[in-house]
Amino acid sequence: MKDLVFVFNDNGQTTLKAIIDCFEIENLKKVQMGISFVRRSGVDYLKPTFQKFIQDGGKIELLFGEDMNISESTALRELLKMGVILKVYRDPQKTYHPKLWIFHSKPNIITITGSSNISKGALEKNIEANIIIKGKTTIIKQQIKYFRKLWESEKSLLIDDEYIDNYKDVEKTKHIKIKYKEDGTYNFGENSKTILTFVDDWIKYIKSNKKIVNLEKWRGWYLLPGHGIINTDKLKELRKIIELIIKSKEYKSDGYASFSTSRKDIRYVNSIIKQAGITYKHRYTEEQKRDWFIRQHKNYLERLGLIQKYNRSEYKITALGYELVKTSTTDVSRLRSIYTTGLVNITWVWGNLKFFKFLVYLMSDLPDNRIYYHELGLIAIHSYHAEQIESIKKLILMFRAIPTKEKDKLIEKLDNKLKQELKTHRSLNAYSHYHGKIEDLLFNFGFATGMKYNDASSDKNKYIEIKDLKKIEKYSEN
Question: Which end of the chain is more exposed for a tag (fewer CB within 10 A), N or C?
Answer without folding.
Answer: C
